[in-house]
Sequence to fold (244 residues):
Amino acid sequence: MINSSAFTWGLCVAVAVACGCAPAKVTYQASSELERYRLATIAVLPFEALKTPQYLSTAQTEVPVPAGARRSDIVFSIPPSGQPCGKEETVSVPLQAAEKVTGLVLAKGQDREGVRWFRPEETAAIIRSLGTPERGVTTEKQAWQVAARLGADAALIGRVRVYQERGGSKYGGSPAEVGFEVRLIGPDGVTLWSGNYYERQRPFVEDAWGSVRRGFVFVTADELADYGAEQIAKQLPVGTPGAR
Fold:
């Protein structure tokens, strides 16, 4: 007869060991200048969707770059061992994915107390009023111009790099894949803080905790995005965590 407590302890140890092998899904980086600023009002700009087609999978270590693409913008995933490697496929990030992720990050961020948020609809109106940016004006500087017009302390911008839906059902098929970055932009277009989320569901042996938390099923891209937005919002250096 198996001792239940011993079994449970053994399972926990196995999960902990396996989790240590899984790559970090969320990473953060803060500027050394961050503490100089009081960030009580944030202008949320509509996030962008990466236009460069993304490679879903490849067996090559070097891949051809689609026309007009920058190598720094290319991301690709290696299929699990045993999965056949066919001809390379590319997909683009759906435009609605950027709007969806913007809304998720804002919704999660609004749980933080002591912060006023300017919604994407408000910032989009300012962007239109500014017209075409002058030559040499970066995305970051334009974001700060929008924040300044609204009297905000910083701008929140983002880019969705990959948003691939799962194939098949939750019990079998190919996993969903989601990746996006979020940045807080301060005066003169300085990046004060950035957070990056990327996840492609992995098998239990590679990500035990993730498998347990998701009930050993394939979740949707929307579910991955919701998780990523929550984790990013928890670390935003604005306000204080709300009581939940």
Observations:
- The first strand starts at residue 26 and ends at 30.
- The radius of gyration is 20 Å.
